Amino acid sequence: MLKFAALAIFAILISCPTLRAEQGPADPLNFQRDAWPLLQEHCSECHGEKKKKGGISFTGLNDLASLLGHRDMWLKAKAELLAGEMPPDPTDTDFKPGDRKRLLAWINAKIETLDRNSPVYLDPGPSPIRQLTRAEYNNTIHDLLKIDFDAASAGGIAPEDNVEGFNNLAGGLVTDQTLLEKYFTAADATLAYLFDGDPRRNGKLKAAREALLIATPSKELSDHDAARKVLEKFVRRAYRRPVDAGEIDRLMVLVDASLKTGQNFESALRAAMKPVLVSPYFLYRLEDEESGMGGSPMSSKENHGRAEPGLSSPKSRATMISDHALAVRLSYFLWSTMPDDELFALADAGKLSAPATLDAQIKRMLADPRAHALTDQFAVQWLMLWRLRSALPSRDNFPALTNSLKDAMQKETTLFFDNLRTEDRSVLDLIDSNYTFVNEELAKNYGIAGVSGKEMRRVSLKPENHRGGLLGMSSILTLTSHTDRTKPTARGKWILSVMLGTPPNPPPPDAGSFKDTKQQHTPRNFREKLAQHASNPSCAACHKRIDPLGFALENYDAIGTWREQVGGQPVDNSGKLPGTAAFVGVDGLKQVLHAKQDQVVRNMVVQMMTYALGRQMEYEDELAIMDIADAMKHDDYKFSSLIRGVVMSRPFQFRRAEESAGDEQAAGQTRGHNERP
Amino acid sequence: MNVRNAGLSRRAVLRGIGACVALPWMESLAWAMPEAAVSAKPPLRMGIFTVTGGTVTESWVPTEVGALGKMPSVLRALEPFKDDLLVLSNLSQSGRSDNVNAHEHCAFMHLTAADKVGKINGKPFTLVGNKAAESVEQRAARLVSEQSLFPSMEIGLAGGEQKYSYGRDGNIVPYESDPRLVFERMFKGRQMVAPNWKRRAGENAASHPAAAANNYDAQVVDLISDDAKKLSGKLGTSDRHKLGEYLEAVDGIQRRIARTQARLQLEALDVPDPGPSHVMPPDHMPMSKKDSDAILRMLQRNPAAHAEYIRLVADLMVLAFQTDTTRVCTVAVGGDDALFPGVVTVGYENHAHTLEHQGNGSRLEDVDPVSREGCRQIHAWYTQQFAYMVEKMRGIDEGGSTLLDNCMLLYTSYMSNGGHGKENYPVLLAGRAGGTLKPGRHIAYQPDTPMANLYVEMLLRMGDKAGEFGNSRSSSKAAYDGRLPGVA
To answer: Is the pTM of this model over 0.90?
Structure first.
């Protein structure tokens, strides 16, 4: 099977003039000339026939099939090369910067040219069904019923864990009996709020009832018929897709039973609304054939002009999602809530996926206040801001650290991120900027004069303020500190995980028991102590990547206040990373990050895609990631270019259809559509 | 979409013909009646009280084996109860791990005694051989699931890295951290009453025909259950698995509705003629979400609030057993990230995790003695909270025996020490397990005896027939034929 695929691609390569294998010196596809000698000389000692460190071995790469395979290996190699981690010996002067570039170029070219024509590119990756998160549930209840009611709290639904950085990944969200019982309680409380409150005293509630009760019983309209009308609209919005009559019939059984026992119209209606609010169609995001929306096989639909060589592997059956599903993906991505009437209308009319319409909708949605969810949900999770509240620095050690200061810290970062969206600024501002947001208390912590009052406002920064970008923010500096001191390792880990996307591995089990091997001299300070610890070979490999990044931030104390001295000695803020020149302080660190700008941007794309798709990135997503980063480069790294890139990407617009119990026949047909002529 | 298609459940047919009275779950009432109804004495309850941070081994393990003499310093608060305690030493875990940090490694093995634990795509897994490893209290819950209102209860702080409980399919069982929600779940629409075990022993299940139930919730559950089943057929394998969680939850609610009906009738008979003990809601129960949030927020930094919280959840376990709300209850308390000013009175550091790393590594010669003393103080403090619960259980008369007599209460931690230790866990059983334990002693087993052997002993007492659990047989350190000789 694989062989067949490889042959097919080989056929494409030789038949397509622009992709011919040998095309002179600039041709990036020449493995024998551009990649193999470098791998042989600099990598094979650890990743060869004998040693296969990390399970990686560059052997047996002698034909197209073997190059096409090993996808994860190439991706790993790319990440290591980008991060400057490999080759590991910085003194290996034979490995010149040009060599790194050449090898990277070859790997990228391999992904570009080989994979773009292979089933890998066509595979949009998995599209798991997704449960609403607590926040999404609450927002959805709010928008569905137009009430200000904290339904999740009323049901006792706890915030979910962050799994691999985000709380909205399909793999991390679990339903169990306790949670479902809480959804029952929340549904009861929500309906009680809506129906039992006094609309004469609460204008918002009055409006909410009127919006829901589009029909009420009258001489011409029976209770039954009025309830049906109300339910038809309510259920369509709750399920976020067209509903068929049978589904309403089943709910009407409850209405009728209730009416029969003498309950009034509203009670009867309420009886039928509860099951909707605990239904899988409401609590999960289901798409297309799963829910009866009816996705379209990709060849039957306009496909943004992309060339679509066919697929023969059933695993990669890809269908473009329906407009209804697209509306749902869009609204939960950008707003963390259900689609609004405009999106519903466009989906009903089948117009949403037309590129111009979609583009206009992205603009509209980003300008809408609901897009604050990108800050509240995405940024707060990505940047680990949610940890600030329980950060360790204590008021005993830092009297300035009041709750209001903590609030201001949090707000600085969220306002900054929000501002990237509302002013459509470059995401590189996160590395460095000449502005930030403060109020009086925070400005005092920063030593910025002339700010008074509790209101947060934008201020311009001068170099002597030592602020700008995320690394100068007290929020980040505090959440990576200990009760009474900074934790350079935690700060370094934060930079590696959050900004560079290369989190260090968990420490080995015996880590932390600072054991003296050969009694070295007593450490003079924490840095020396850590250095001794890190001289243990099993610790050193990671700590030499982690610690220098954190030590560059030593001018900031545990709550982010600038300092020139620690314990009576000048701050030692110099650092050196494997494979890079030495750098000093936060400014030096920012230069390092600027030099690694491609990696920083790529990581932002990965994070945003992960959040948008609710799953971790797979090899199949690599081309989409590269394309988005590339498009951002040509659009000044504007925030909107990142969002647009994600929405327009193949993984966002298509879904991989798994075989299901009842659709063998349908599968055959879909495959038929996709067969290459 | 037509309701009446093929594969229609019998339930839906009943509803279709308008027969709402004869709800099928009514039939289950006869077998759903508690076994205790025909048993002459109060039932056995299994409780687990687990803390974070392991312990300080030399201050936990008694120096002598046999009858308990003067208690070591971490256990000193239990001195008055030592006739009811069985201290077991040298129990260890040997499971391997993949792609997790040391805390997660220990936490996932803790109650599962798995061969292997780890994470795939951020999701924990626990394995024995190639099968998902269930945690001990979930297995116990399955054995007694129909005998009380809830098969089991999981209360306290066990989120994040500390995921202790796993169902039969490896699904994570959540813990409820909010005491107010635990209490509401137990007693919403239900009276707080101590069962009269003597009277119940004389009752015949069949003499209580089911009253007509409020079947609205049952109808709602049927409706969504049908939705989910239909939906399931359209999904691919992994999505179907995902929806399976929902279906199982719906199924659980269906069974609970049935159980609740049976329970309420049984308890209605206890109200005029209750058991001898007095039932009280816990003191200081938070009355609103705001109060709950405040105590949850404070406890990591404030030992007084922390102690109040631990006592609250301990009270809830006692109350759950006393009212026969459940027979299997786990309370997870403590926090590796908590601060202990005032509890730790040596040095300047009082952050548990830092103290654990500096003072509680497995190599005694490498540790900082001041930090170790800090750890010891924290663990002596945890024991005080546990002793409060033991005392309370001993004060509850169940009609000739105390609640403690009818309990098997495990006090332990997910690590053996703060250095992520996996050898010689702190383990003690409080209570007489209805006469199936012989307490008042310290038993030292051979080093590395699997913790799983303890779980086998506990499960056998809960009625398990399998006779093995976790890696009790598959561990390379398997010992004593997978049992713990001498506990009875």
So the answer is: no
